[in-house]
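For the sake of clarity, the format in which proteins appear in this thesis is described at this point. The fold follows as a row of integers, each naming the local backbone shape at the matching residue. One such record is shown here in full, so that the layout can be seen directly:
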Amino acid sequence: MTENSPQPDNTAQPDAEALRLRTRELLAAHPPASTGRTDFLRARFDAGLAWVHYPAGLGGLGTPRSLQSVVDAELEAAGAPDNDPRRIGIGLGMAAPTILRYGTDEQKRRFLRPLWVGDEVWCQLFSEPGAGSDLAALATRAVRDGDHWTVTGQKVWTSSAHLARWAILIARTDPDVPKHRGITYFICDMTDPGVEVRPLRQITGEAEFNEVFLAGVRIPDTHRLGPVGDGWKVAQTTLMNERVSIGGSRIPREGGMIGPVVKTWRERPELRTHDLHQRLLALWVEAEVARLTGERLRQQLVAGQPGPEGSGMKLTFARLNQEISGLEVELLGEEGLLYSDWTMSRPELVDFTGRDAGYRYLRSKGNSIEGGTSEVLLNIVAERVLGLPSEPRNDKDAAWKDLAR
């Protein structure tokens, strides 16, 4: 071998069999039956079996994302605990991939482990009362003050803010440039002075959402993600991952909203009519197509970051949930008009399909708003997937401070 010859690669990625062995070693060292839930999850993270496609030392081993299923199957068969992903979905699906891509080494080490284990809940401070669908028009200001930023403004529709320790936050740092520029991305400590969380009671009776007031909150510059003024670019990583996590989550056949309807149909033949049968068949097929499309989308993620296709999946998710839950209410007749509990509560997790038919029908109304409204997502699909020309705009090059509000 000459001096300039390629050197052998001694850092080959583990294959499926090596991952099985590593998972069994974890189980042997930390038996689920006798190991506390949190201790087991921390050991799993440290073994690189949390996100196998993440770098070593950050919960992964740098292997292809597709091999995660190998680890998950071994752990499920052994009865190992999971990290309650519905409770910490914002951290897992939105904060983590953004921190991985744009965070400093120190930020990755500080935030990823407690985020994955579930020690710390995250929320998302993006939407505002005057900038919901037009997120880039946000008005929350962040002003530099030495090695800190002082943030003032209001956010709304913030899931889990009442539980969260940390938040991903975008704020305007330069009002003299067009609205998509001059935005910076921060990590906000929800326990800091100046952060006030107020519940927003929904049509379901729950207050799963909140409005958040930021009154002179001081955020250290070490909690900034990405360059100053480049927050819109950073936020795109969050938004694309959000839409995949909402619309492309892995479910079994007849999982999700279609499951309860099919179960009722099979168990209560007296409710059936020919018209309902035809509609249920069509929705069942659409739900299965959406499930398989979601699986294909997740396989595409192995090659890199999610693209605008996630917007199409989220669109389908919202429409199907609303149509299926509407059919369920019709199928149940008078029973479908009943609602079990209007008690005001602040739940710990988002449950799109929980409780009874009335809950599912009412909760699904939010699916076409959260994670990007269906109207905005249609524009994204039209422009970024189909390549259609964008709509005429008169605010693209104007300074944010000069826009009418």
Summary: The two ends are 69 Å apart (CA to CA). The chain is about 40% helix and 15% strand.
